[in-house]
Amino acid sequence: MKKSKIILYILTVLFFYSCEHDKILPPVSLHYSTAYVVNSRDNSISMVNTNTNSVVDKIDLTSANFPYHIYISPDKKLLAVSVTNVDLSNGFPLSSFNSYNSGNKILIIDIATKNIIKEISLDQLASNAIFSVTGTELWVGQADDVHSKMLVYKTSDWTLQNTIPLGKGLAEISFCSDGDMSFTCTSVDDSVQMYNTSDKSFLMNSMLPTHPIGAFPSDHHTNFIVCDVSNTVYELNADDCQTIDTISLSYKPGHVKYNSSKSEMWMTDVSNGEVHWFKEINSHWTEQGTILVGNNPRWISFSTDESKAFVANQNSNSISVIDVSNHTLINTIGVGLSPSSIAIAP
Question: What's the rounded Cα separation, in Å, for the pair 116 and 113?
Fold first, then answer.
């Protein structure tokens, strides 16, 4: 009996010591930066750990058919995925937008739970849906052969707040770096429009030759306009919508992304499976080098510290990882079928 009491005493001491010991141990952190990669042809999102460069999870989009572009909310809590119901791996259409007016929608995904919390059905093709800089609005494009439009939803309850009429063949919607102006590229009209994001008033319009498909911001209140038919990128001043630089290319551009930490402009070359990087020299963006990636690279995203670039290679079913400091390929990660765009959350 005495022996049993001694054993019980020892076990009790060990138990309380263990509890107290656990209290002083630091918590184990499972947090890591994640790249969310949309796979257009298998209706899924691959989740890639940007620290280890490995696929760690997958979000199945069973209600989607050809998800295309993905954007993240400013608070990094929500993803907005456009569903086009058509294969756009060769780029945005040149015409006949009204033939794509079925099965279009926007999916809102909660990052913490990986669940679809809202599905916005659309009656026209939407290239993308993008959150305002405040996160209180979601701007959605609607492409039409004659009368495209922008839809502005309130993110608190997903009610439609504004409908803004546009021209022919709306492609990408974007904002300038501080979010006070929206840029819309009506590709058939060969024009780019700017609107005040606060009161939704029209500001100005710029005519550009041959099929502008996207206006991607720098840090200088300018936007790079990608024209994939004329193989040209224009830099527009967001203050007056005037062209301040023209970059003529020998290849078809897909996407442009500005790296603030290096003051560099990066561009995908869908013709040759490369990424080109540029420096501004004497007020002109001048190519400094190329990096071989996969087939049909369509999108570039930088890690949150901008030390790595992640490139979606649509026809290679992979993403390329590039070290920004020395512009070298450091990894190729297999993902799903036809990755089309990438959003990164810290």
Answer: 9
**Count of C-beta atoms within a 10 Å radius of residue 90:** 11
Alpha carbon distance 255, 241 (integer Å): 20
pLDDT surpasses 90 at 185: yes
Q: Sheet of 264-269: strands edge to edge?
A: 253-259, 264-269, 274-281, 284-292
Please tell me the distance from the alpha carbon of residue 313 to that of residue 311, in angstroms, as a whole number.
6
- Cα Rg of the chain (Å, integer): 23
Confidence (pTM): 0.89
Residue bearing tokens 């009161």: 199
Alpha carbon 218 to its chain's center: 15
Label residue 190 left, alpha or beta by phi (over 0 means left) and psi (-120 to 50 means alpha).
left
In this structure, the strands spanning 115-122 and 243-248 are unpaired
Dist. CA 77–CA 94, nearest whole Å: 34
At 240, which amino acid appears? D
Q: Phi and psi at residue 220, in whole multiples of 5°?
A: -110, 25
Q: Quick check: 138 and 155 in contact, CB under 8 A?
A: yes
Edge-to-edge order in the sheet of strand 115-122: 67-72, 78-83, 104-110, 115-122
Tokens 């606060």: give the residue: 198
- For residue 21, give the 3-state DSSP assignment: helix
- Report d(CA 283, CA 241) in Å as an integer: 17
Tell me how far the alpha carbon of residue 44 is from its chain's centroid. Answer: 15
In tens, the pLDDT along 133-152 reads: 999 999 999 999 999 999 99
Q: What burial class does residue 107 get, using C-beta atoms within 10 Å of its C-beta: 0-12 exposed, 13-18 middle, 19+ buried?
A: buried
For residue 143, the 8-state DSSP code is: B
**Residue for token pair 């551009």:** 253
